[in-house]
Amino acid sequence: MPSFAEPTILILIGPGGAGKGTLARHLVEADGRLWLSRSWTTRPRRPGEAEDAYEFVDRERFLSRIAADGFLEWAEFLGNLYGTPVPQPPQGYDILLEIDLQGALQVLDRDPTAVIALIEPPSEPHQTERLRRRGDTEAHVAARVERGRGEIEAGRKVADHVVVNEDLQTSTAQLLSILGRLRESRAH
Ligand code: 5GP
Asked: Bridge-partner residues for 17, per DSSP?
């Protein structure tokens, strides 16, 4: 019988250019019982970025949602605000978050059973290349790689799992297996 206990929260953290977004989409497609939260951001949409990648809002709307206690967590990242609306997954689904480290720590504070997986790029040249392909400016790419070093170092201290994202299929399989074990342990 399916159990409708509290959903498990799996959080993907890691520097920009590690491939978290693609991994998150693959995980949700492969699992069928995983619900990906859609974040709010005040960052402008990048050229070519999917319209539904985020709920793109202005600062005023973001601040009023904070005031209404409408976020599970929120944080400022390189000058923009990002936040996870209080999740409302369908019954029986677990929750997948793709957020930064500051946000992950806030979620952990509210739900100590949440599990953090740090997604690392295989190398800085790899990461730089991925960021450039997204159309970020060189200055922004450099700032992200620099910030990413700190995110990896701090992330390793708090992460329950570390996945080096060299190959999408392998990384997806690793995360599915982490999720499977997590569900198993919560079922007992
Ligand atoms: P990007 O601008 O590249 O889409 O995202 C920048 C950073 O913000 C990434 O590390 C991404 O994981 C993180 N992020 C995306 N959504 C959220 C969110 O809802 N909350 C927090 N704390 N970080 C987020």
From this structure: none
